[in-house]
Amino acid sequence: SRRHKLYREELNLTSPAAPLPLRPEASWLQFHLGISRDGLYPRSSAAVTRLLRDLQELPTISADYSQDEKALLGACDCSQIVKPSGVHLKLVLRFQDFGKAMFKPMRQKREEETPEDFFYFVDFQRHNAEIAAFHLDRILDFRRVPPTVGRLINVTKEILEVTKNEVLQSVFFVSPASNVCFFAKCPYMCKTEYAVCGNPHLLEGSLSAFLPSLNLAPRLSIPNPWIRSYSFDGKEEWEVNPLYCNTVREIYPYSTGNRLLNIVDMAIFDFLTGNMDRHHYEMFTKFGDDGFLLHLDNARGFGRHSHDEISILAPLSQCCRIKRTTLLRLQLLAEPEYRLSDVMRESLLQDPLAPVLTEPHLLALDRRLQLILDAVGKCINTFGEATVVANDTAQPRSHAPDRARLDT
């Protein structure tokens, strides 16, 4: 705390800062303006390219806890945490031009697999999973994951010395190995042995660009119909009733439009990453009930390359419906010359923290892709292609009024 105070006095940061102008060409703003009903960004987006570069290079000007962590701080009993070595440690880092990103530090080495005895709701959050999920989402042409990039963060200069949050300042310490470490307060990790540490100052992490504020672009958070039970015992209805989708189909908005097909897209994406933690999904209200689903919070993916969790595919296998565009893309990525593992490997080489995934995780993508295509084939054999494959290739192009805009 003393060091932080001296640093601020040295740079005269205690005086009120002059208001900063908003630059229309800022990559953060251009990314937000590019959001449309088709996805978070166009297929070829110069703004996203610039945004990823800025996330890698621009210095941080402040650091703080995220809003959900602030809401919970001090409002929990740490003894009630199932696994205090836990799962969450994330910060909001701010940059110039009003840019901000969610920082998730490295908590698990790439070659480590999630232990078999871990429940999905107490698994680690992996920074490299967030990075890989962005690349996979873009390869699948979903474009529903915010731009995410890896970065080596100097936790002293880029977090401790720029934060104004005294609670965050208080959780920094120097380890016996002379590394600078920090940990989260309750409700997630309450002890220094659950900290993350630099080497001695540098720490790997993922940076995910923030979406427009809720005031400018309201979003809905909706429970996933295939939500899992978040307890040690008990099952949800979909886990015991193979005809569960018949019930879902009768409920609006899954009874009409593209919502159910978008849920299947999300399940396919989660199956490829191995993410079992999709309890809710979010949508922009601006685009109505048929808008795309945001694929947020992917840090629990890519935990076990040796296991394929078939239950994640329940929306596909129970409903036997898939978009034609999704199926065509999957079939293309199963071809030897466009093999998904090869495309992912090449894409991930662009990230500063490459290699982002180990080779077994990349090869697992090919195996899981084939399992998806097998599930679709089984559905077609049972119900016929006309029933299973939904033709979404002739959808009208988005119009200017449908685009998400920031009011300036």
UniProtKB/TrEMBL annotation:
Its cofactor is Mn(2+). Keywords: ATP-binding, Disulfide bond, Glycoprotein, Golgi apparatus, Kinase, Manganese, Metal-binding, Nucleotide-binding, Transferase. It comes from the Eukaryota. Residues 172-388 form the FAM20 C-terminal domain. The keyword Disulfide bond applies. The active site is at D277. One of its GO terms (molecular function) is protein serine/threonine kinase activator activity. It is found in: Golgi apparatus. ATP binds at K104, S208, A209, F210, L211, E282, D297. Pfam families: Fam20C. Mn(2+) binds at D297. The keyword Zinc does not apply. Its main location: Golgi. One of its GO terms (cellular component) is Golgi apparatus. Belongs to the FAM20 family. This is FA20A Pseudokinase. It comes from Origma solitaria.
